[in-house]
Design goal:
The complex is a heterodimer of chains A (about 750) and B (about 190). Chain A has about 750 residues and is an alpha/beta fold. Helices cover about 55% and strands about 15% of the residues of chain A. Chain A is built from 22 helices and 21 strands. In chain A, a hairpin with a 2-residue loop joins strand 9 (about 395-400) and strand 10. The two termini of chain A are about 110 Å apart. By secondary structure, chain B is of the alpha/beta class. In chain B, about 35% of the residues lie in helices and about 25% in strands. Chain B has 7 helices and 10 strands. Chain B has an 8-stranded mixed beta sheet. A two-stranded antiparallel ribbon of chain B has the order 1-9. In chain B, helix 1 (about 1-15) packs across helix 3. Chain B starts with a helix and ends in a 6-residue tail after the last strand. The chains are: A alpha/beta (about 750), B alpha/beta (about 190).
């Protein structure tokens, strides 16, 4: 069975180990010393026996020599003093017993002893006896031998004495060890038991102010200190926590009360705010003058309906945009107060006529919007619109007057592809304008054609402002070629707007707008400078020299700095003036007779060429052609387009050509699209041609590749081919072998 | 050779017993007695130490017999191969005392031509072991005087004479002596 020493009390451990250690040490010492003593004692007795034997042999030699056995006996008797000798025997040379001595009653001497070789020797202890023999001789003569029989009594006596002493010492030392370890145990486990007792007491009583008495400064003392410190710490924390707990409770109570109060305040505040919000909300969505819904309410409702419609296509609806006709007159003549009253009354009538679930909203001024929730078919919408307008058939009685007003309605239905509130409203607005244009007090439906005029204008206005800054404008070039040789002689720079969303826009879309916004000057200047710089670059790169033709608007040329800007553009680009041609419409030239003359002279002075664009469309006085420094006439494309079918067209072109030749002017035919036209134009003597037959407006890079590179020169043969092809009546435009511009 | 020695010692030990059973007058007994005495002579030599500086003429131990020789040829045979202290023993018979001057041992036999006293006086101080056995010479002044007592050969020792002659006798020998005379030197 294995003994679990770990579970023993320290007392038992200490005593057990101490006793075991001291006993083991003593046993070892005892055995060590005893062993040594036994060996030593044995050796001593042997040595002593040997010595005795030698001496006795020497002493008995004479007696033996002279045959004096009595003397020999006397000699042997001396051994009686030796307790370790049991007997001694002297044998003659023949082995006869000569003399003997026996202790007490012992008979140890055999009658004969054939000391086989009389050598000095000693036998091993036998039955507790040691036999030692020694030869007896005198001066080399061997006389006999001596046998001494020793015992081990002395050895045994010493051994037993040692054992007794060892046992006594062992007993005493065990007692001492026991006493010492008891004391040691008390020194060690005493303080620990104190600690255990204290810990148990603290746990039971929960009194942390208790302390353990320290007995000394040893490790146990340190342990006691640590324990006491721990108790102090716990005590301190305990008290602190209690204090904190009380304080916390007070604080919680206070805070709870505060919170309740704050909550009440907050609730009343929220109620207040909710009422205010309600009011605000009403205000936000209603018109204060008429009590109708406002634009925001309309937009919100429209948004909902658009979403419902996109989810369910059968949930169609219609939006009417109503503008009061003649309201402005009332407002201006009878004053705002009457105007407002009129608006309020009109609103009342509208609301009562329309009725729920349809919505009437005032958009501002004399503009109203009516949202018809369930109507989608144009016929129904038209009928409803007529019904609404009929509410104005009775006059309004205001300030003793009878005021007649009417309304124009633009209508739009949800069936359009894109259904967004803004678009619907804008389309309805556009339709309303159409209605007004048709005749007042009427209804018009929106169609796609109305979109660009009204809506694009609005958006482009914003974008154009930044187009110049953002470098969104670019120039394309359309070739102008010799009618006789086909060689490219010039090009017309045409401005384009690369709109980030709408893509590339043509000037028709934004030139008018730029004039409205006063941006045309910047735009025109940019085109002028860009065209000059581009042409100068081409020439610098060694391409064929061609002129570049730039359109100038009426507003541009009226500005005083126009000539200066032109000169600056030329100077900055390094382009020779003769390679720049300014195109002015016939209308422009006619409008400002005096200053135009001066302006054209100045430009001529700079050295640039002047061309009259769209010649033949205005009411030109042919007289000016003689007085002004005009270089070129560009025959309007309408004449060319008609020339194929209309004999008159050709005759006009022919007449212009004849006149121009008479005045020494160049003629350019615009809009040449098919070889047939080219053929006609050549036949009437036009110098240069411009049109899709030769090339559409294209990017500078393409223009260089197709018309300015040496390899791209149009040869006479090519031109003839074109002309030949034109004789074939059945050929359509698309099949003609034209240069691609891509 | 060792046989003789063995025999000699045996004789020394066994002779006293037959000696006891025989009468003195018997010649054969007498011869046996002197065999023992001869052995005694030899043994004496063994237990006596002569002075270191004594240089005898020959490198042997000389045993001189003065007077009528009682030993006969036996002693010569007995001691023929014997040695003492590594030296051989030799027996010579002399008539006059002065002949004994270079001997180591002198046996005084009786009767002799000269007065024993005169002989001994002449040898006083000389390193010679003088031995006698005749009853007449008892107390005459020899170093060792052998007697037969209880049919055994015993001997007396006169230490005074021995000392005067410069001889050292072994204590073992003295212990065997019947009587040891420690008389003063004036003897």
């Amino acid at each position: 069975m294995r003994i679990r020493v770990d579970n023993w009390p320290i007392e038992r451990k200490l005593i057990t180990f101490s006793l075991t250690a001291s006993a083991a040490a003593l046993f070892l010492a005892f055995f060590g010393f005893s062993g040594y003593e036994i060996v030593t004692s044995h050796n001593e007795s042997i040595d002593r026996l040997d010595a005795l034997t030698a001496v006795t042999a020497e002493n008995s030699a004479a007696a033996l020599a002279f045959g004096d056995s009595e003397a020999a006996h006397e000699t042997l008797r001396a051994l009686s003093w030796e307790s370790g000798v049991d007997g001694a025997c002297i044998y003659s040379r023949q082995g006869e017993l000569f003399a003997s001595y026996n202790r007490a009653e012992l008979q140890v001497c055999p009658p004969r002893h054939s000391g086989h070789s009389f050598k000095n020797e000693r036998t091993a202890p036998d039955a507790g006896r040691i036999y030692a023999t020694w030869s007896i001789d005198r001066d080399g003569d061997e006389l006999g031998h001596l046998l001494i029989v020793g015992n081990r009594n002395e050895f045994r006596r010493r051994l037993s004495r040692y054992s007794v002493i060892a046992i006594l010492v062992l007993g005493v030392s065990c007692l001492v060890t026991f006493a010492l370890s008891r004391r040691l145990q008390r020194l060690i486990s005493g303080p620990i038991l104190d600690l255990v007792q204290a810990a148990n007491a603290v746990r039971a009583e929960r009194v942390y102010s208790r302390r353990v008495h320290k007995r000394g400064e040893d490790e146990c003392g340190l342990l006691v200190d640590a324990f006491n410190d721990m108790l102090s710490e716990i005590d301190r924390r305990d008290r602190g926590e209690q204090l904190r707990g009380d304080r916390l409770e007070d604080e919680v109570t206070t805070r709870t009360a505060d919170l309740r109060r704050a909550n009440q305040e907050l609730e009343s505040e929220i109620a207040e705010r909710r009422r205010a919000e309600e009011a605000l909300r009403y205000e936000a969505f209603h018109d204060s003058l008429t009590g109708l819904g406002n634009r925001a309410l309309l937009m919100s409702r429209l948004d909902e309906m658009c979403q419902a419609f996109s989810a369910d296509r059968t949930a169609g609806f219609a939006l009417l945009f109503l503008d009061l006709d003649g309201f402005k007159l009332v407002n201006d003549s009878l004053g705002h107060t009457v105007g407002d009253q009129l608006l309020a009354r009109a609103a009342q009538r509208l609301a009562s006529t329309v009725g729920p679930p349809n919505l009437v909203a005032r958009l501002g001024g004399d503009e109203f919007a009516i949202l018809l929730s369930n109507l989608n078919e144009p016929e129904e919408v038209y009928a409803e619109s007529e019904r609404i307008l009929s509410c104005f058939s009775e006059p309004f009685a205001l300030r003793d007057r009878e005021i007649f007003i009417n309304g124009s309605i633009g209508a739009v239905t949800s069936s359009l592809n894109s259904c967004t509130p803004e678009k619907l409203l804008r389309d309805a607005d556009a339709a309303m304008y159409r209605a007004k244009a048709i005749g007042k007090a009427t209804v018009a439906f929106f169609d796609i054609g109305m979109a660009s005029s009204a809506l694009d204008k609005l958006e482009l206005r914003n974008d154009l402002q930044r187009a110049l800054d953002r470098d969104e404008l670019l120039l394309e070039y359309q070739p102008i070629c010799s009618a006789t040789t086909g060689v490219t002689v010039g090009c017309e720079a045409l401005v384009r707007w690369r709109h980030p969303i709408r893509g590339v826009l043509s000037p028709d879309c934004f030139i008018g707008l730029s004039e409205e916004m006063g941006l045309v000057h910047r735009l025109g200047e940019w085109v002028l400078r860009r065209a000059c710089a581009q042409n100068a670059e081409w020439q610098a790169r060694g391409f064929r020299k061609v002129y570049v033709s730039v359109n100038v608007s009426a507003l541009q040329i009226r500005r005083d700095d126009f000539v200066g800007i032109t000169a600056s553009a030329l100077e900055k680009s390094g382009l020779e003036p003769r390679w720049l041609k300014l195109e002015l419409t016939e209308t422009v030239l006619m409008e400002g007779s005096d200053f135009i003359t001066e302006r054209l002279r100045s430009l001529d002075h700079v050295g640039v060429r002047i061309a009259v664009d769209d010649f033949g469309t205005g009411y030109s006085s042919l007289n000016y052609l003689r007085h002004w420094p005009i270089h070129t006439l560009k025959i309007d494309r309408s004449f060319i387009a008609e020339s194929r079918n209309d004999r008159a067209g050709i005759q006009i072109v022919s007449a212009i050509a004849t006149m121009a030749q008479a005045l020494g002017l160049n003629i350019i035919a615009e809009g040449v699209e098919v070889p047939e036209q080219l053929h006609l134009i050549r036949s009437v003597g036009c110098h240069q041609v411009q049109g899709y037959l030769f090339g559409k407006p294209m990017s500078p890079e393409n223009f260089v590749d197709c018309f300015l590179m040496p390899s791209s020169e149009r040869s006479q043969a090519d031109l003839n081919t074109l002309l030949d092809a034109s004789l074939l009546p059945a050929r359509s435009v698309n099949e003609l072998p034209l240069r691609t511009t891509t | 050779m060792r046989r003789y020695a063995t025999w000699l010692v045996m004789a020394g030990l066994t002779l006293p017993l037959p000696l006891v059973s025989q009468h003195d007058g018997d010649e054969r007994l007498r011869a046996q007695e002197y065999d023992v005495k001869a052995a005694f002579l030899y043994n004496f030599v063994k237990f006596v130490r002569w002075p270191e500086n004594v240089q005898h003429g020959e490198d042997s131990i000389e045993i001189a017999v003065l007077g009528r020789d009682p030993f006969g040829a036996r002693i010569d045979e007995m001691l023929a191969d014997k040695t003492a202290d590594g030296r051989p023993l030799r027996v010579k018979r002399i008539r006059r005392a002065h002949e004994a001057e270079d001997a180591d041992v002198l046996f005084l036999a009786f009767p002799m031509d000269e007065s024993p006293q005169a002989v001994l006086d002449a040898l006083v101080g000389k390193p010679i072991l003088t031995v006698s056995d005749a009853p007449e010479l008892t107390g005459a002044g020899t170093v060792i005087h052998m007697v037969v007592e209880d049919r055994r050969v015993r001997f007396d020792v006169d230490l005074g004479v021995a000392t005067r002659n410069g001889l050292a006798l072994s204590s073992h020998l003295l212990r065997l002596a019947r009587r040891v005379n420690k008389a003063p030197l004036d003897r």
